[in-house]
Amino acid sequence: MMPVVVIGNGPVGQTTALLLARWGVPVVLLDGREERDPVGSKAICQQRDVLDIWEAVGAGRRIADEGVTWTTARTYYRNKELFSYALGDAGRSSFPPFVNISQARTEQILDERIAREALIDVRWGHQVVGLRQDANGVTVRCAGGQEVRGAYAVACAGARGDEIRRMLGVSFGGHSFDDRFLICDIRADLPGWAHERRFHFDPSWNPGRQVLIHPCPDSTFRIDWQVPGGYDVAAEEASGALDRRIRAIIGEAPYEIAWKSVYRFQSRVVDRMRAGRVLLAGDCAHLVAPFGARGLNSGVGDAENAAWKLAYVLRGEAGEDLLESYHEERHAAALENLEVTTATMDFLVPQDEKQRKTRLRVLSAAAADPAMAARVDSGRLSEPFWYDTSSLTTPDPARPFAGRPPRGQVPATGPGILLPDVPVSTVDNRRLRELARDGFLVLAVPGTDVTGLGVPALSLAEIEEFGARPGELWLIRPDAYVAAVVTERAALGEALQRALGRVVIPQR
């Protein structure tokens, strides 16, 4: 089997490579850097369902155990708490809603898993300068003159993958925000701060702007301040103003700055996430503001979607048309993330006087008015995208998708929704999603005939927890999404063909 070339050895590229290897697909993993640069916290919030994906390659439990668990998000306005909420779970996942851990440490753990994979060939110092496609594969040319041949490629080259996007002829439309954000990783002993995300609107110690505080391992706290466009961190540090900025939050506790940076956030998405035999993933395909932790988490969703589809095509179990559904599904996910995070940024940084007045009215009333509290936007936290309108999903009239649920909640399980995770005591104490990620799977409640379906099938009492009924056959995709819920065997076969991208069946 020809390898898949993965361009970019950040966490999205690492995840893509590991998942492909799990499917038995050889990978050449390229990166233009000479070695990894483990500096700064960068993407710190790892969502429960992403930890579950990483567990499929042997890394999720370790990342979760080393990270700091948090289950509550608190929001304040002018030092008064407006509300807090906990994050829901439709099943009984073994992972917490979120853990905070530095991107650098996540990358180290994924590197250790990659080192054990004979199917992954890692090549540092290979800057990609050319891409050539033909009917049989992709030729990747590197700056040193090396050429790497693969059946397909996945571009995970990050936010600075401008040359890759140019080579592929894709646009990267969007805009940048004028305000900057100062980020400091601070080591300090701050009792009571270790298991909550805290978001402050207009605190007295950053008037007119916002501050976000996240706990991290080893008594480290990530603090993000919104600062003016012309902000100069070096000048502020030299004058002592940076110390005063930090002291306003943590008081007199001793501290040290482990890392600091100033960012200008962008909202951008490519017009195509598939360009022939090349799929684009992660920040190479989409950039969003970080409020809501939708960057890396969404990139890992890209990686899983790409990996199982490439594996099925390469193994001859699906046609190349299945790859078009990668663009369909993950581009829709990127657009939703763009919509959600842009709405957050418009609330954080109003674009006109009308928006400013609306924000002031909402924040002033939110403490006493639940309806106004629901309109406070400090970032809708990362969640899986729902493929309810995907061409791979067979709709069920009895389970219509009700739309985006309130923040912190999950939708009812049905076609296009990620299967809730529960322990399965009758199958070697494995978990439901673990079973699902072995390939297409049919689930039914006990008493339903599941013999002779042509697809691996299980009768499990546990699936009654999320609404499965006697006589129903639940078709689950290899990424643990529900592809269909049917009651007839003929309909199951049709749904499987649709989920493999072999036929386009009109929506009913």
UniProtKB/TrEMBL annotation:
Its cofactor is FAD. The keyword Flavoprotein applies. The keyword Oxidoreductase applies. Pfam families: FAD_binding_3. It comes from the Bacteria. Residues 2-337 form the FAD-binding domain. One of its GO terms (molecular function) is oxidoreductase activity, acting on paired donors, with incorporation or reduction of molecular oxygen, NAD(P)H as one donor, and incorporation of one atom of oxygen. InterPro entries: FAD-bd, FAD/NAD-bd_sf, RIFMO-like. Keywords: FAD, Flavoprotein, Monooxygenase, Oxidoreductase. This is Pentachlorophenol monooxygenase. It comes from Amycolatopsis alkalitolerans.
